[in-house]
Design goal:
Blueprint (H helix, E strand, L loop, with lengths): L21 H17 L5 H11 L27 H8 L6 H16 L11 H4 L15 H17 L3 H8 L6 H18 L7 H12 L6 H22 L1
Helix pairs in contact: 1-9, 3-4, 4-8, 6-8, 7-9, 8-10, 9-10
């Protein structure tokens, strides 16, 4: 008798490459948290960060549940720019394209910040970085200083929401484009918040590490997430020394 063929799982569309099931994620998270709690595989600097994160205020997570990015009852919502508020709400949408455009718009908003509250949030999806330093000898202009200051301010406003965003999108979102864009946003944030990241690192790190080691399924996301990781701790090690 011939050998019976086993049914193979249907291939995922290209844009769904690299995501894993919630049960697999839970298993990896358990293993990662066990390793982290014992200090295995982490530098002394990271352990200090994690200790700082665990002893910080409980206001690090925004929203009453993992399915909600924003909670109107949360006192911190008032500190978030209205454009960012509107864009975060779109991350709850079922349509992957809507989530992708929201993250792209957040990326462009952080790169091209404004104090105005009258803009259409999605206009930032099509915008580009137009504030380029054209002064002689690359001198920083007053306008650029103000732009950088706003970017830093908005990144710090957005940082408390990142644990909830990572919980919802990193690894688990079926569309790889959404997960990749999340790390483009996260890269800008990490470049502007400095040691403030330590307050939320313990909640973000497990999802972040899973994307780093997920290089077989999605090399592009793995490279970007690993680059952010190395840049952060290289900078912090210099600051410590």
């Amino acid at each position: 008798m011939g050998k019976q063929k086993t049914s193979s799982e249907p291939r995922k569309p290209k844009n769904q490459k690299g995501s894993i099931s919630s049960s697999k994620a839970a298993n990896v998270l358990h293993q990662t948290s066990s390793t982290t709690s014992t200090g295995g595989g982490t530098s002394s600097l990271m352990n200090a960060f994690l200790t700082k994160g665990s002893s910080s205020s409980s206001s690090s997570l925004i929203g009453a549940s993992s399915s909600t990015m924003l909670s109107n009852s949360d006192k911190n919502i008032k500190t978030l720019h209205p454009t960012l508020q509107a864009l975060l709400k779109h991350l709850n949408k079922k349509d992957a394209t809507t989530r992708l455009k929201a993250l792209q718009s957040i990326t462009n908003f952080l790169n091209n910040p404004t104090t105005s509250t009258d803009n259409d949030p999605y206009e930032y999806h099509q915008s580009s970085n137009t504030n380029v330093n054209n002064t002689a000898n690359n001198e920083t202009t007053k306008e650029e200083q103000e732009k950088n200051k706003l970017t830093e301010e908005y990144c710090k406003q957005l940082l408390p929401y990142m644990p909830e965003i990572f919980k919802k999108i990193a690894i688990l979102d079926f569309d790889r484009r959404v997960r990749l864009q999340l790390f483009h946003v996260f890269k800008i944030i990490t470049q502007n918040v400095g040691k403030d990241l330590g307050r939320y690192l313990k909640q973000i790190l497990p999802y972040w590490l899973m994307e780093i080691v997920n290089e077989i399924n999605d090399l592009e996301i793995s490279k970007l997430s690993n680059q952010i990781f190395l840049n952060i701790f290289k900078t912090l090690e210099k600051q410590e020394n």
